[in-house]
Amino acid sequence: NGDMTSVVVNATFTKGTYVRIGKQVWIDCFIRTDSIGALGTGYAAISGLPFDAENVALYNAYPSPVHTFFSFGSDGPEYVYINNNSGEVWLGKHGSGAAVSTVIDATDLSTAANRNGIAFQLTYITDAAA
């Protein structure tokens, strides 16, 4: 979310693709970081999607499970979702107590080499022009 610096993504292991049919967008992604210079504060998100999600009160993209690798452990993401009118995928986990869900904090990530691997697929609705 802009609070992390010097993020090195391993291009050999990082792959992503998308298919758009009408208003529906399907994405498939695997990302692995080699290092992060400074974690900062705030949430962890993946930006740069090809189309923003439609702005329809959280009904544009249902949470999708995520598979994690390497160092996430108990603080790792359990699912991904897209905020309204956004081109960002947020990494989420189940909240404690009365909270339904929460985003992964930047401090939940590891700065070590070959860490923070995630794989996911997500379908969402866009209102972006074709």
Question: What is the residue-mean pLDDT, rounded to a whole number?
Answer: 77
Per the principal axes of the C-alpha atoms, what is the gross shape?
globular
Question: Unreliable stretches, pLDDT < 50, 5 or more residues?
Answer: none
Question: Helix-strand pattern, N to C?
Answer: EEEEEEEEE
Our Rg estimate from Cα atoms comes to 15 Å
Q: Tally the beta strands.
A: 9
Number of contiguous helices: 0
Biggest pleated sheet: 9 strands, antiparallel
Can you walk me through this structure?
With 130 residues, the protein is mainly β. The protein has no helices and 9 strands. The protein has strands at residues 8-9, 15-21, 24-35, 45-46, 64-69, 79-82, 89-94, 101-103, 115-125. Strands 1, 2, 3, 4, 5, 6, 7, 8 and 9 form a 9-stranded antiparallel sheet that branches. β2 and β3 (24-35) form a beta hairpin. The protein is globular. The model has no long low-confidence stretch (mean pLDDT 77).
Q: Brief description of this entry?
A:
The protein is mostly beta strands and 130 residues long.
Features:
130 residues, mainly beta, 9 strands
Secondary structure blueprint with pairings:
Elements: E1 8-9, E2 15-21, E3 24-35, E4 45-46, E5 64-69, E6 79-82, E7 89-94, E8 101-103, E9 115-125
